[in-house]
Amino acid sequence: MVTLLPVLVLGIGLTATAAKAEVVTGLPGGTWSVLPDTTAGGTASIVAGPGTPPAGTGSLRLTVATAADRVLVGTDLGQPLPRPWGGLSAEYSTFVPEGSPASFTPTLRIAGFQVIAPAPAQFTTLSFEPSRNGTVVPGQWQTWTLGPTSVVWQTNATDGFCVQATPCTLAQFVAQYPGGAWGQAQLGIGSGVAGPAEGFADAVTIRDGAQVLFTDFDPVPPPASPSPTPSPEESPQEILPVTGHSSRDVTGLGLAAAVLILLGTGLVVLAARRSRS
C-alpha cells in the first residue's frame, strides 16, 4: 500500500497495546476502514447474515464488478506498529453464495516489509488464500486459521521467494525475513477475480504475539419499537381506582342515590298527607 510505508516508519519504537474486541457497524469503524487501493468497481459494506454468521447477526460484504477491480479493508490493530512476522497468527470466517467459485472467498492479507532496520525496505503484502489451505464450500460459513504451516505468498518478487506461482509456508516466510515486520491486516477480493463477485467475512481474530484484536462485523440494530398509544376506549377515566369502581361507576351510583333520596322524600310526604286526611 502506498500510504502504509510512512505509517510503519512513524510507528517504530511504540509498544503494543492490550487485547481488545470490536463490533464494527460501519466503515470506517473501530480500527477498520476501506483502503485507498479499492477501485470504483469494488464495494465494502456491513450487512445482516448471510445465514447464521459465526458472531453476531451480520458480516462484512465485499464485491467486485470486474476482474480489473479490487476491494480492500484494513486494520492496524489500533496502533501502526512494526510487528515481527514471527508473532503473526490469525483466524477468520468466510462465506460465498451457492454456486460461487472458490476465488470469491475473501483473502486475508498482511502488509509489511522484508527488512525494517536500519530503515524499512522491500515492501510486500503476504496473502493467505482459503482455497490454497482447504476446500471452499459455497453456501456455508467456514473458519480458516493462519499459522506456521499455512500456505502463503507475497507480492514482492524481487528475490523470487514465496511468490504466487511458488508459495511457501508462513514458517518458511518468517525464517526468510527474520528482520522484517508487518503493520496492517487486510481483507479483500481481486484483482484478477472474474466479476461480478461477492464474498463475506466475519469473526476476525488478528494476533501479534500476546496482542489480540477480535472483530465482529454487525449492522446497526433497528430502533426499538415505541410504546403503544392508548385507544380512546382505554382513556384514563376508565382506569379503576383503589375502590374498584371506575369514575363512571361512581357518577352512576351518585345519581342513583339522589333518585332514591328524592323518591323516599316523596313517599314520606305522601304518607303524611294520607295520615291527616
Descriptive notes:
Helix content is 16%, strand content 34%. It has 277 residues and is α+β, with helices and mostly antiparallel strands. Strands 2, 5, 6, 8, 9, 11, 12 and 13 form an eight-stranded antiparallel beta sheet that branches. A hairpin with a 2-residue loop joins β14 (197-208) and β15. The longest helix is centred in the C-terminal third of the chain and has 30 residues, at 247-276. Residues 1-17 and 235-277 have low confidence and may be disordered.
Give the SSE map.
Layout: H1 4-11, E1 20-24, E2 32-34, E3 42-48, E4 58-64, E5 70-75, E6 83-84, E7 88-95, E8 107-115, E9 121-128, E10 142-146, E11 151-154, E12 168-169, H2 170-176, E13 181-190, E14 197-208, E15 211-217, H3 247-276
Parallel strand pairs: 1-15
Antiparallel strand pairs: 2-5, 3-4, 4-14, 5-13, 6-13, 7-10, 7-14, 8-9, 8-13, 9-11, 11-12, 14-15
Distinctive features:
seven-stranded mixed sheet; single chain; disordered C terminus; 277 residues; 16% helix; eight-stranded antiparallel sheet; alpha+beta
Q: What would a concise description of this structure say?
A:
The chain is an alpha+beta fold and about 280 residues long. It is about 15% helix and about 35% strand.
Q: Strand tally, please?
A: 15
* Average pLDDT metric: 83
Strand content: 25-35%
Q: Tell me the structural class.
A: alpha+beta
Q: Secondary-structure element sequence?
A: HEEEEEEEEEEEEHEEEH
Tell me the helix content. Answer: 10-25%
Largest sheet: 8 strands, antiparallel
What is the tally of helical segments?
Answer: 3
Shape: globular
